[in-house]
């Protein structure tokens, strides 16, 4: 497959920092994606190479900006339904602010047979600083032949909405903010909670047949230790379970089949390293998704903990293959991965060098360099790449005050010589928790080691599955480096 453009440098598109390549979807011979913040929807005939672009001016006047930053896309029959949000027209002020009077949430439909775009639904509150909930996910409900919209990012009209795909009429089903969902058996599972406060607080399940809702808590951690702020990205379905990918771990299970949700600690560094602004797809019976190093950030230093946690880079973004009980790293990338899709035996990985920024840190152009990397799908069967993570121990030390402190959750599958290097300011004791992504969830096995002030090397090749760590005493000057080879 030949794309006309694989790389997209910074261009005009007023918003906060950088958007990315979102909504990658291959359907009925057409590859779709939206380039944000330029607000360009691209439709490529993969056989002929013919490409069409759409600038979202069915919503309002040019110049437009935005598009989608959560991968809101679904396919039904010959149609590609794509959603998100758009400024039409965009209004940028020189005091680094965007005016939101013209910000619309939207769902469009592209007919792959006719090659036409239509506006199906839009919503706006026409406010200077606030906006209607963006469309962050679209699910097809095959029993009721409708679209289910998740809306979490915004100030009004949040929740889960049902959209008639013929009339364009939308009605709310619940009003609690919801970013993502997935279909499991005959139910639709949606995350509920705000990612800019405490994250996922519960998972709601909608019975597609009866229309009844049930609510479930995220559950306890398999390593027996508490977890905090599970800001969440995609939900995915496999093995008749729902998988919610969150900051610091994975929440998996299905209470509708008698299995409580449990938390599996994964990549917990007490930073904003998270599976945020990326999608998850099913490949080979498993799930392929990513955890991102730098997706949202407070740009201007203000001495706050938020600035420190969003700007501390602990490791590369990783592409993950989930096939329980295995969690396997299959790729290492830069600041963030924004989209994943499978086309003709290849994996398309959309990437970006730059994160989103804060609300008073707007620019008149997208500041990121975005590109599409093409990989062979056989990477899910190959040995994982060498990866390292470096963590200031002050972060888990500070997390203790919030009820956390256990860090890591490092998947060892495929690595022959993993190790941890600890640089400590005082003697301490380190507990290693060993577990895997077993379903139903098992419990971790713990082993404790005496560690000394100075440099300590702990070989991890005697462990398997996933390992997390906890120091008995805080070490605000220490550092941990985890090397996977």
UniProtKB/TrEMBL annotation:
Alphabetical list of InterPro entries matching this protein: Quinoprotein_ADH-like_sf (IPR011047), UCP016666 (IPR016675), WD40/YVTN_repeat-like_dom_sf (IPR015943)
Taxonomy, superkingdom: Archaea
Classification via Pfam families: DUF2139 (PF09910)
Entry protein name: Phosphate ABC transporter substrate-binding protein
């Amino acid at each position: 497959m030949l794309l006309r453009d694989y790389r997209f440098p910074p261009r005009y598109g007023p918003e906060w920092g950088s958007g990315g390549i979102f909504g990658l979807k291959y359907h009925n011979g057409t590859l779709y994606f939206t380039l944000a913040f330029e607000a360009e929807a691209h439709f490529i005939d993969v056989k002929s190479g013919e490409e069409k672009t759409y600038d979202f001016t069915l919503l309002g006047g040019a110049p437009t900006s935005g598009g989608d930053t959560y991968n809101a896309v679904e396919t039904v029959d010959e149609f590609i339904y794509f959603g998100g949000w758009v400024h039409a027209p965009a209004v940028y002020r020189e005091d680094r602010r965007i005016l939101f009077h013209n910000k619309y949430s939207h769902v469009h439909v592209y007919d792959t047979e006719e090659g036409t775009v239509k506006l199906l639904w839009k919503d706006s509150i026409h406010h200077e600083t606030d906006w209607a909930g963006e469309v962050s996910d679209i699910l097809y409900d095959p029993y009721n032949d409708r679209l289910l919209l998740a809306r979490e990012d915004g100030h009004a009209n949040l929740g889960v909405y049902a959209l008639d795909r013929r009339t364009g009429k939308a009605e709310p089903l619940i009003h609690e903010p919801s970013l993502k969902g997935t279909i499991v058996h005959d139910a639709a599972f949606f995350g509920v909670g705000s990612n800019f406060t405490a994250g996922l607080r519960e998972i709601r399940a909608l019975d597609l047949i009866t229309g009844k809702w049930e609510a479930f808590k995220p559950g306890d951690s398999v390593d027996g230790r508490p977890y905090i702020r599970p800001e969440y990205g995609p939900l995915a379905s496999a093995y008749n379970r729902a998988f919610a990918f969150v900051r610091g771990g994975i929440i998996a299970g299905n209470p509708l089949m008698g299995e409580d949700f449990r938390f599996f600690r994964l990549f917990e560094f007490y930073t904003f390293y998270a599976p945020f602004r990326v999608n998850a797809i099913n490949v080979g019976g498993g799930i392929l998704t990513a955890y991102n190093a730098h997706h949202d950030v407070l740009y201007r230093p203000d001495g706050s903990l938020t600035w420190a946690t969003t700007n501390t880079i602990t490791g590369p973004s990783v592409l993950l293959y989930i096939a329980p009980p295995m969690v396997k790293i299959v790729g290492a990338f830069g600041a963030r991965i924004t989209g994943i899709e499978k086309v003709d035996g290849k994996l398309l990985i959309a990437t970006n060098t730059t994160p989103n920024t804060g609300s008073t840190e707007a620019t008149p152009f997208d500041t990121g360099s975005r590109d599409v990397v093409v990989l062979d799908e056989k990477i899910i069967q190959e040995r994982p790449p060498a990866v390292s993570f470096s963590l200031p121990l002050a972060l888990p030390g500070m997390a203790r005050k919030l009820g956390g402190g256990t860090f890591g959750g490092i998947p060892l599958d495929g690595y022959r010589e993993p190790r941890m290097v600890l640089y400590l300011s005082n003697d301490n004791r380190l507990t290693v928790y060993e577990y895997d992504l077993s379903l139903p969830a098992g419990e971790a096995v713990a082993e404790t080691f005496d560690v000394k002030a100075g440099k300590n090397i702990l070989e991890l090749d005697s462990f398997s599955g996933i390992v997390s760590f906890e120091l008995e005493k805080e070490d605000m000057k220490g550092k941990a480096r985890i090397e996977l080879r």
